[in-house]
Amino acid sequence: MIDIKNLTIERAHEGFKNKKFTCKKLVQKYLQIIKEKNTELNAYLEVYDDVLDQTEKAQKMFENETATILTGIPFAIKDNILFEGHKASAGSKILENYVATYDSTVVKELKKQGAILIGRTNMDEFAMGSSTQTSAYGVTRNPYDTSRVPGGSSGGSAVAVAGDMALVSLGTETCGSVRQPASFCGLVGLKPTYGAVSRNGIIAMGNSLDQVSPFGKNVKDVEIVFNALSKYDPMDSTSIKLPPRPSDTPPYQGGGKLTPLIVKEGVGGGKTIGVPWHLFEKGVDSEVMNNFKESIKKLEDSGCEIVDIKLPYSKYSLEAYYIIMPAEVSTNLSRFDGMRYGLSEKGENLAEVYKKSRGKGFGQEARRRILLGTYVLSHGYYDAYYNKAIKVREKIKEEIVGAFQKVDFIATPTTPTTAFKLGEKLDDPVAMYLCDIFSAPANLAGIPAIALPSGKDKNNLPFSIQFMAPHFCENSLFEIGKKFESLKK
Ligand code: GLN
Predict the structure, then answer these.
(1) What is the DSSP track for 228-279?
(2) Which is the catalytic residue, given 89, 135, 177, 213?
(3) Distance between CA 367 and CA 386 in Å, rounded?
């Protein structure tokens, strides 16, 4: 019997090595759970038909001793991550039958290490949303309460792990799309530093913000996945090549070594955590706030120094995000014109083909953002909106980098509420956008951030705390994450 609930990457690896179970046995177990649960939860849009072939290859790697820590580990991947020869629809009708013609860099790496790619997961259309309800392929349900959303846009990848239908998974973040569903589904979610993980082969939403981001049941699993995927990629012009360091061994191990934590005098080996209390004055659910205060208290009792910090520009993060992101979306989605990819409707002339294909292929949220983005980039409005938002973004980045001169981490609740009901906020886009209020600063500033489970509410729904760290300080996030995990619940 494999204890799936408590399985971790390291335990699975030990199990394979000590021949307690084979890769096939483990994968079959997950496939069986998918069969039992996926009809209701709709985490997977497709289970790949070559899973057992992949498993055989992985088993051989154990036999010929070329296995790595990820060999045989079952992964779910978001429907916007390209896997050659397999469908990728980004949750949209416009890409319904699109088959990837090449592997994304992250998939190439996972394949090389013999990880098992079980299937592609449901998501908000083109990653636009916070609840996985804008997908063209139905909603995904939260395993803690199936009348509630799992969060989004990477809701399918979150539910795959929370519902024990994969051991770990990949999502993508443009603004909280991994941390927010991690929060709603009781998981750990990491948004890496912008440029740490290759975006090559990811269907773009907002290029200056997007990052492939892992989900796991604990910090260690997420750390292992991040370490495997974070390396320089010449195929991504925004991938960051770090200066060679003598002790550096590929793959890049995060930033703990590059930017050491600021050592404070008299803190007794603790860490300094900045809390921007002024940002929580409005709109945060009182239960969420109480849970956050309890978490901060636990950290303080364990030796951390808590410092009240002010981030006056970060208050405008969502406003800046909802101008910059749609601008990038309107540019990125212009390639879906009915001629090159996926859906193509017949028309009398070229303009009609465009109109009919795009009209039929895009859902309401994608259309809303294309219109918004086109507007803020249009002649006469560019300076008033787009350029202004870019300036605000720079200010936010500056003040966050400045704050890290004084503190090692910045902590906030991950989301202002716990998981909400299906259908809620759907006809109020602004209420939906507010879900990302604490996610946006990290994406805009390009810094890494981690979401960690911090208990449950009276309805048994998970709470979550977020830590942000300076650029390339993922290692510090893993350190504080493990410390937080070890504190008594
Ligand atoms: N909720 C964000 C949005 O709707 C999520 C974007 C993302 O991270 N992919 O834009």
Answers:
(1) HH-S--TTSTT---PPP-TT--SSP--STTTSPPPPPTTSTT--EEEE-GGG
(2) 177
(3) 19
Residue 404: what pLDDT?
A: 93
237 CB burial (10 A radius; 0-12, 13-18, 19+)? exposed
Pocket test for ligand 1, best of 125, 128, 208 (most atoms within 8 A of CB): 128
* Structure-token pair, residue 137: 């392929």
In Å, what is the CA distance from 314 to each residue of 180, 437, 442, 448, 464? 18, 9, 10, 16, 20
Active site residue 177: yes
Pull the structure tokens for residue 440: 């946006």
- Most distant pair of Cα atoms in the chain: their distance: 76
Q: What per-residue confidence (pLDDT) applies to 489?
A: 58
Q: Which helix (H) or strand (E) holds 80?
A: none
What is the Cα–Cα distance from 295 to 293, expressed in whole angstroms? 5
CA distances in angstroms from 487 to 334, 458, 477, listed in the order given: 49, 21, 15
Catalytic residue among 89, 92, 131, 153: 153
pTM above 0.85, yes or no: yes
Nearest to 286 by CA among 466, 145, 416: 416
Ligand 1 centroid to residue 174 C-alpha, Å:
6
CA quadruple 106, 112, 114, 118: dihedral positive or negative?
positive
Q: Which of 436, 443, 444, when mutated, tests ligand 1's pocket best, judged by the most ligand atoms within 8 Å of its CB?
A: 436
66: CA distance to ligand 1 center in Å?
A: 38
pLDDT digits (tens, 9 = 90+) for 271-316: 899 999 999 988 899 999 999 999 999 999 999 999 999 999 999 9
